Structure to design on (149 residues):
């Protein structure tokens, strides 16, 4: 599967189908904007000194920010954020964001794990992935998406 989800493509959607992938650059400026929007001003998300003092390898992205990035795979695929019925994850590894203009590259994607059907709605259960430096940063990232049609 590739591209945007439509009623036609949803009709043939099956277990194992991949969602379109997305690659995102996360910069310190993104972390500052997220901190302001979320109210999470913990200095491990902006201060190398504090991050190092608590044993981190550097400034790290907010876990919820990493989760939101993976959620973008769903909204890009469906074209409709209201189609996302549920979404949960565990945070397994941090995304370390260097203090430069490039930032950190996070690779995002997903796979259809299951299709559930009722009389009124079809739902795709999607396993999401977020990878930084070859390692998964979200564990058990799973969402339910109402399919069109």
């Amino acid at each position: 599967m590739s591209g945007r989800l439509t009623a036609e493509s949803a009709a043939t959607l099956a277990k194992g189908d991949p969602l379109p992938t997305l690659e995102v650059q996360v910069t310190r400026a993104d972390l500052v904007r997220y901190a302001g929007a979320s109210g999470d001003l913990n200095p491990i998300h902006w201060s190398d000194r504090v991050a190092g003092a608590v044993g981190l390898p550097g400034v790290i992205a907010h876990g919820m920010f990493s989760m939101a990035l993976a959620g973008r795979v769903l909204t890009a695929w469906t074209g409709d954020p209201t189609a996302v019925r549920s979404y949960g994850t565990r945070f397994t590894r941090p995304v370390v964001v260097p203090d430069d203009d490039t930032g950190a590259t996070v690779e995002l994607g997903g796979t259809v794990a299951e299709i559930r059907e009722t009389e009124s709605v079809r739902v795709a259960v999607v396993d999401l992935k977020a990878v930084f430096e070859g390692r998964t940063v979200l564990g058990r990232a799973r969402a339910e998406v109402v399919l069109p049609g």
